[in-house]
Design goal:
By secondary structure, the protein is of the alpha+beta class. The chain folds into 5 domains: 62-151; 157-199, no CATH class; 216-338, Gyrase A, domain 2 (2-Layer Sandwich); 383-574 and 672-843, Multidrug efflux transporter AcrB transmembrane domain (Multidrug efflux transporter AcrB transmembrane fold); 585-666, Alpha-Beta Plaits (2-Layer Sandwich), CATH 3.30.70.3400. It is 59% helix and 15% strand. The chain is built from 28 helices and 26 strands. It has an 8-stranded antiparallel sheet with strand order 8-9-2-19-25-22-24-23. A 6-stranded mixed sheet has the order 12-11-17-16-10-13. A hairpin with a 3-residue loop joins strand 8 and strand 9 (192-198). Helix 12 packs antiparallel against helix 15 (482-517), helix 13 (413-442) packs parallel to helix 15 and helix 22 (668-696) packs antiparallel against helix 23 (699-723). The radius of gyration is 34 Å and the shape is elongated. The protein starts with a helix and ends with a helix. Keywords: Cell inner membrane, Cell membrane, Membrane, Protein transport, Translocation, Transmembrane, Transmembrane helix, Transport.
Length: 858
Amino acid sequence: MARFSFRGVVYVLIVMLGLLSAAPNILPQSVKQQLPTWYTTSTLSLGLDLQGGSHLLLAADTNALFAKQLNSFSSDVLSELRSQNVRYTRTPHSLSSKASSEDSAGRVVFTLRSADDARKVKDIAYQISAQPNTASALDVAIKQNTVTLTLDELYTEELVKDTLNRSVEVVRKRLNETGLTEPSVTLQGKDAILVQMPGMSDPTQVKKLLGTTAQMTFHWAANSQSEQVMNKQDVAGNTYQLEQKVALEGEHITDAAGVLSSETGQPVVTFRLDSAGAKQFATMTRDNIGRVLAIVLDDKVVTAPVINSVIPGGRGEITGNFTLPEAGNTALMLRTGALPVPLTIIEERTVGPDLGSDAIQTGVQSGVAGALLVLAFMVAIYGRWGAIASFALCINMVLVFGALTLFGATLTLPGIAGLILTMGMAVDANILINERIREESKKGRPAARAIDVGFDKAFATIVDSNFTTLIAVSLLFMFGSGPIKGFAITIALGLVSSVFTAVALTKVLMLKVVKSKHRNTRDRTQQRLYLRFSSPLLRLSDKLSGIDFLAKRKIALAISVVLTVLSIGLFAKPGLHYGVDFTGGTMIELTAPALSTDELRNVIESNGFDQVAIQEYGNEHHYLLRAPVLDSNGELENSNAKQTDALKRAISQADDTVSFDKIDMVGPKVSGGFAELSILALLIAGGGMLVYLWARFEAHFATAALLTVLLDLTKTVGFFALTGIEFNLTAVAALLALIGYSINDKVVVLDRIRELLRLDPAKPLANTINEAVNSTLSRTVFTSVTTLLALLPMAIFGGDAVESFAVPMVFAVVVGTSSTLFITSTLLYLLGSRRERQGKAQLKPTAEEIKASLSHIP
């Protein structure tokens, strides 16, 4: 009794924690005002697809970073060699402005006059490039007097890490200075920065800020004493010969402002230097009166005044052809600091606020509709026990919301889809338990004992089926983008929570009902429990038992193989309708009330966008534009970002009432990575499940399950090709969810086959398989129906945002259920029969069987 009480207290505490974590999301404002701020502010954040906003993925140009560092180190090395009279010669392809050559592989090469100087070169390189975490930043290779300098691999990793961290801070400062509401700036991968800006439907200005490094340096004009000279131009095209050596770094700037000059009335940028910079600036201007000092901003000469007197105090003014907004932006960038490396926009996704609010409405409505259908179906099947299961499902959803809130997760539209699918799949554990209890009740067990045995027998199957699904879901989290990761986290939390609510909470509630309602004799308790499991749907399912699923195994397998071959043919031609996630390019959804289709086409073509495809989409004056990846001298990422902005400007000029509902711009670097990671995720999912199934089942069991899932997968891909539904990252999520769902279905049947084989190994294999499939038939059908009930509202009313997930999943559930009944059983029969002909047992002996057999050995 004490044990039960303690366990009940633990369950109550877990549920209360979930309720308290989820509560801030629904509490009215009047109640929130009476509670601590730290509690009320802990709510689920809405993703950009739900509240509207912009998402930019910025890639760091590490090649430029490495080239700059290598050039800096090599210049110091060569300068020191000259000071020590070490003679060297330039390579034939050496550039005139450099003392060495730097090729595309990131190397600096020069040839020594004397081989005896090799050791000296290595010592100098080590002294100049010594680093705290690595022996040296430079790797020196010398072969036949030819010296090759490259950056050390460990140093480059640390350099990129440090540079990206500094870039994140600069980007965050710039965005904060613009007054944006809660911008999110985070690292993504090894060389990218993710910027999310809720509520911003036009990120053009922000893109300009983030696309400018704002690296400002001061250089003296070259004279006869200058050693290394470089040519720089201003915006008017005038060329200046400047010393390559930096006279003063822009990092000394502590403040800047865009103002109107008191003398000329023109926009200028004023700046102030820190104390070290002010001293240096005063000294250099005092020693160079009469010389031209050029201010270079991002490789362009902004101004080049003649120094007529000492400039003390560390204050200066930058003049140029600025407009007042440009002067303000330049000042903002100088205040917040220069980006240590150029950033390129490789992905842009923008959702208008109207589309976001529509997504919330459709997501919530389809979710509520699906949940109500599932709960009603459970009550219709199992009556009181179905009501308990429904209550546990509701607690499950509360726990998921609480966990998402506790972890600071962001709720996206795919996340809502994940919640809906989670509810459909979570029912599976409850159905398994109820079916097991029903079986034990039929055997004559008393009510409480039937519940205990039913839960014990269902537990291993629930763990196996959910663990295999988690393998697929974990890959979604590892390889997916932001919204897909949200989908994966939602399903993972839902599966873990569903095991708790189904196995622990439901059992406690069932035993409570039994003990409070059935206090009579053992026989009457048993009878009442069984009568509660006698709904019309259950009686109908009982009548369906005794089906010979192997009787038409050849026909079933032939149909499956033919459909798979046809699906492969559809994949080849016409092929999948790939979205911009995989093809790259730009997709724009817009509403242009003043433009007809022909007028919009004329506007687009007259502005030079001949490759842009136009499609009428949904309501009148609502259009979908698709632009392929542009190739502009290798600058693919910048070309697509610039194309998107130019296209928007052209349409806005033709119709000033236009609204851009959604923009997806994906560069080739990102799209190529998505394709590779998607294939890798599917392969790892299959491999991971195969390993797990081999560990939990015999090899032929695992092989039968994986082959069936592969057939399901190919048919679903064929469905994409046949229907023309866009194949994007959401579609990949659907395929991985299908793998998890399908294998879940197969594991339940395989587990029952294994159980029956252990009970009667001598029984013919065909009879055992048929008995197992029939005994789990009601569970298979009911689970599929509940999943379909959860998915159908989303598939019908969810809109285009989840079309690539919901519609294929409906198809996949139907295909997966039929393959579980007919194909998995057939393949296992064929593989098992082959095993019998080889004289092998169907199952490996258990530890108890091995121990028993050894005990007979004298």
